[in-house]
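Dear colleagues,

As part of the handover before I leave the project, I'm documenting each prediction I ran so the next person doesn't have to rerun anything. This entry is a single chain, and its sequence is reproduced below.
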Amino acid sequence: MTISEESRHRLYLRLEEVLGPDEATVLMEHLPPVGWADVATKRDIEGLAVATKRDIEGLAVATRHDIEGLAVATRHDIDLLGTRMDARLERELRLMTWRVALAMLTLISVAVAAGRF
């Protein structure tokens, strides 16, 4: 049975006839504004607390797992970047060495050709 505002008002009027207006008001204020099936019990709230705690713990585990995965991926990316930078530095140094050697050979050739050696 659903309780409507009309049925609540009829109950209040009848209680007012029997008990008087003050007592009828006090009694009506102790009734839930909805049906008793819609009122949460202490057991309902405790069940929600347990479920919420379990959900939060699950999220904490998943978050730790995600952070550990990000840390591994970040370390891998940093190592890969270091390897690439080392290889590029080595290529650039080798190229610079060749350029300096070629410049020196060119200068020596020009000096020899000019008769300075």
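The chain has a mean pLDDT of 91. Residues 1-39 form one domain.

All the best with the project,
I.
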